[in-house]
Amino acid sequence: MNSSISFWNRSAARYAQRPIADQNAYLRKIALTQKYLNPEMDVLEFGCGTGSTALIHAPRVRSYLATDASPRMIDIARKRKTEKSADNLRFVVATLDDMQHRQQAFDAILGLNILHLLRDPEQAIYQAFSMLKPGGVFVSNTACLQDTRPYLRPVALLARMLRMAPYVKFLSRQQLEHQLVRAGFQIQYRWVPETSRDVYFLIAQKPK
Ligand SMILES: C[S@@+](CC[C@H](N)C(=O)[O-])C[C@H]1O[C@@H](n2cnc3c(N)ncnc32)[C@H](O)[C@@H]1O
Question: CB–CB of 47/111 below 8 Å?
């Protein structure tokens, strides 16, 4: 298991207890996403963590597959699911690499607070593109620290070496948009919340 996944396994219980940092921005992202969802859709979320967002969106769609590389995160998500009725929602331990047999299988893919944690976010974007049906949407929320706090790079490196933080890639918003466009996406919506300028919320569409 790589060191970042060990980090997320160790952090899962604490992560589940943590309050949402910016509740208004979170609710707005939920509402913006739901404009693109409907009851006929099959949805994939990767890096779903403890499943809070999956539990909110699942009742709006036909099927919702929520995946995460950390077994501990998925254990907590499954426990949460038993407290709600969500028959169309499945939580599975998997990475995007594991899902590559599902080509053109999904109407929407969500990658929330995950792309900047991957060594190769561009590859993940290409993978998401190939797993979407034509016209499908990719919803992402990504820390773009290269724009807001590039000076934190050595701190992030040190924290990772001390096993206090996972791997973090310092992306810029422009870089992220270029990667999406290179993969073939058209950007439909972009938003930097005023209250948390580190993150970039994007909705991108695969052409029909
Ligand atoms: C910051 S948390 C975000 C969780 C959730 N999406 C949210 O917004 O609350 C990042 C999640 O990504 C997962 N993760 C990290 N690397 C991953 C990978 N390569 N594939 C899938 N999940 C991964 C971690 O286990 C963790 O649950």
Answer: yes
